[in-house]
Write a structure and sequence with these properties.
CATH superfamily: Tetracycline Repressor, domain 2
Largest sheet: none
Distance between the termini: 72 Å
Keywords: DNA-binding, Transcription, Transcription regulation
Pfam family, one: TetR_N
Low-confidence stretches: none
Domain HTH tetR-type: 8-68
Radius of gyration: 19 Å
Shape: elongated
Order of helices and strands: HHHHHHHHHH
CATH architecture: Orthogonal Bundle
Oligomer: single chain
Helix content: over 70%
Organism: Paractinoplanes durhamensis
Structural class: mainly alpha
Number of strands: 0
Protein name: TetR family transcriptional regulator
Strand content: under 5%
Number of helices: 10
CATH topology: Tetracycline Repressor, domain 2
Length: 195
């Protein structure tokens, strides 16, 4: 006798609710029982939709990664160039409404660095999507090696600024520093190459 088919729309709803729970309470608190209670279903319902606890955790991390990527992308899909893309990514990432998700992201990142085998998929994709997008934003501005270096600098700077903001709550100082970085990036990109 075949099992009941999975309702994929319901699975996405449960997954988004589980990510919300993890963002509010921390990844360490995620279990069948706690998530089921928070989203108003039975643990059996979660097992049906996700399989094992490890599969649910992987799905939560995957959805979190999708949200992080969406938070740093231009919703119009346009490629305004690296400086404008970086400035817009910062504005979306630093939005106070996204704070719980980014807190969860950094908490998982720390855990992943301590247990890389357990979080291999998370680590493999933690930078990839955003890196590809930032390189693509430079397709008419830089050779491939330069584009990779610039994208790496932008990701590292925005993540560092965001970690500082989440740690200190000093929005004015961090925002002023971010603006200075983006101004410098724009000036650098506008400067003609030296031959």
């Amino acid at each position: 006798m075949a099992g009941r088919p999975i309702n994929h729309q319901r699975r996405q709803e449960l997954l988004d609710a589980a990510v919300g729970f993890a963002a509010e309470h921390g990844f360490a608190e995620v279990s069948w029982r706690t998530v089921a209670a928070a989203v108003g279903v039975s643990p059996t319902t979660l097992v049906h939709h996700f399989g094992t606890k490890e599969q649910m955790l992987e799905a939560i991390l995957g959805r979190l990664r999708e949200r992080m990527f969406a938070a740093t992308r231009d919703p119009s899909g346009e490629r305004p160039g690296l400086a404008a893309e970086a400035r817009a990514a910062w504005a979306r990432a630093a939005d106070p409404r996204r704070e719980p998700e980014f807190r969860l992201f950094f908490a998982v990142y720390g855990s992943a660095l301590q247990a890389p085998q357990q979080f291999a998929d998370f680590l493999d994709h933690a930078v990839t999507y955003w890196m590809v997008a930032l390189i693509e934003a430079q397709k008419d501005e830089a050779d491939p090696a330069t584009a990779v270096r610039r994208a790496t600098l932008v990701i590292a700077t925005i993540r560092g600024l965001l970690l500082d903001l989440l740690t200190t709550g000093d929005r004015a100082r961090v925002q002023e520093t971010a603006e200075a970085f983006f101004d410098t990036l724009e000036e650098t990109l506008e400067r003609p190459p030296i031959h």
